[in-house]
Amino acid sequence: MGLIDVSGLSVTFIAAGRRVRAVRDVSFSVGRGESYGIVGESGSGKSTVLRALVGLAPVSGGQMTMDGAALQGARPAAFYRKVQMVFQDPYASLHPRHTVDRVLSEPLAIHGFTDRDARIARALDDVGLGQGFRFRYPHQLSGGQRQRVAIARAIILEPEVLLLDEPTSALDASIQAEVLNLLDRLRGERGLTYVLVSHDLAVVAHMCERLLVMQHGRAVEEMTRESLRAQAATQDYTRALLTASEGYRPA
Amino acid sequence: MSVMSREWLLTEQPASRRQAHVGQAYRTWLALRGNRLAMVGLGIIVVLILMAVLAPLIAPYDPIQGGDLRTERLLPPSWQHLMGTDDLARDIWSRVAYGSRITLMVVALVAVIATPVGLLVGTISGYFGGVVDTVLMRITDIFLAFPQLVLALAFVAALGPGIENAIIAISITSWPPYARLARAETLTIRNADHIAAIKLQGASSLRIIWGHVVPLCLSSVVIRVTLDMAGIILTAAGLGFLGLGAQPPQPEWGAMIAEGRQFIIDNWWVSTMPGIAIFVVSLGFNFLGDGLRDVMDPKARK
């Protein structure tokens, strides 16, 4: 049994009277300290799995457990100390009227920390932003800097699990590598568990030991990094995905 | 004051919370200062405030106690009486000057009462949705179903005439549009990633609404309130005109127009002077509101 166990997860949205089954019967397990990837095209339900884990999406079936405790309904405050999330779009995930300082001190205030200044300083240093960024507004930051702030916000409560929802897809290529390296380093330093969602096989191959391929809300196949590198896919869809990601490389 | 220099205010690397906030406010001010109509509007409002504060100094006569009824009734504008006198031999300029206090009080109190109510109802309604939304919005609909002046008339009639009751009536009738506006803004904000992010930090609904949703709704509501100020002044004047607002001998501009109605052909200045005052102040608030919209509306921002 892993740190996070998901079995038979289904998520159904009801939009304008129509039922949309975004996730159907998905199961996976993530061990402590592991980095687990979820890959798929747009609309495959991969982000919805993350949102369901933290209670942002309506679960219509299946079980999720973390550390043996079932996850359902409203999560207790202690859950958010353990699990944090980094969102895809750093332009949407930071409040436009809040300074970096406010963004980072609010979770500390909610959870009753008293040594806020020291923690904010450390979090900013950890993500490679200096103290000079502390009192800036998001509009004074670049996309990469914003994503670093979002990562700082996620690690400031010292969680065990980070859920990464396409953390680099809104950034340009050179910044992508920097942010991925930062995430890699943080995992090494803090022994974090990652669940990384991405449409980019290269990113997942770089970051994750195991991965799950999803299509149309269903799990297609689970692979290890080695089998991915050996191109040992057993399903047609995965093979198509692999070919597509190769074809994308400059000739 | 050397720390408050331009560089200190506009630095990209503020060193403290206060510097960041003050700098942001200064940037907004700079943008507003560049808008000529907004500055005209602001100027008019500053003049109105000065007039209200300095009324005893700038008014040459008593606004309530008239002069000699035999010789000083209905005098046309002259150097003795800049705006003429009314049928009770009172100096109209003095009455307009003192009347600015009433106008300012109405505007300020209505803004202070109606804005928070509208903002709160709207954000709560939009954030929670479902039953809460339905109940609050149907109540809002009931208020919106009546023309504002008619509803205010009904409230004043029930509460009794007088300027305080007029303020209460106008406040009761002016919050629903703000609630609608705040709700619409909230609906676009509530599914934003930054709201999801603060939820995932374990924040309570109260903290999210107050700290995260309200600041984003505030600018559009403030703009709307500023643009509505003219309407509020006109409603107050309308109630005064109908005899349900300020009571004689209070120098309320709307009531003054009503008093001059019977002499409007022969003694035009009695009604015209307070009318011009209402017109200028309404225009000032509209200019300022337009300018604020250009500067603060997040949707109009490049």
Count the strands of chain B? 0
What proportion strand of chain A? 25-35%
Chain pair with largest interface: A-B, 34 and 26 residues
Q: Main sheet of chain A, how many strands, which sense, barrel?
A: 6 strands, mixed
Alpha carbon gyration radius of chain B: 23 Å
The CATH H-level homologous superfamily of chain A = P-loop containing nucleotide triphosphate hydrolases
Oligomer classification: heterodimer
Helix content of chain A: 25-40%
Q: What is the CA-atom radius of gyration of chain A, in angstroms?
A: 18 Å
Which architecture name of chain B does CATH use?
Orthogonal Bundle
**Total number of β-strand segments of chain A?**
10
CATH superfamily of chain B: MetI-like
CATH fold category name of chain A: Rossmann fold
**How many separate domains make up the residues of chain B?**
1
Describe the structure.
The complex is a heterodimer of chains A (251) and B (302). Chain A has 251 residues and is an alpha/beta fold. Chain A has 9 helices and 10 strands. Chain A is 36% helix and 27% strand. In chain A, the strands form 2 sheets. In chain A, strands 6-7-8-3-9-10 form a 6-stranded mixed beta sheet, sandwiched between helices. In chain A, strands 2-1-4-5 form a 4-stranded antiparallel beta sheet, covered by helices on one side. In chain A, strand 1 and strand 2 form a beta hairpin. The radius of gyration of chain A is 18 Å and the shape is globular. In chain B, 72% of the residues lie in helices and 0% in strands. Chain B is mostly helical and 302 residues long. In chain B, helix 6 packs antiparallel against helix 8 and helix 10 runs parallel beside helix 11. The chains are: A alpha/beta (251), B mainly alpha (302). At the A-B interface, helix 2, strand 6 and helix 3 of A face helix 2, helix 9 and helix 10 of B.
Keywords:
heterodimer; A: alpha/beta; Rossmann fold; B: 302 residues; mainly alpha; 12 helices
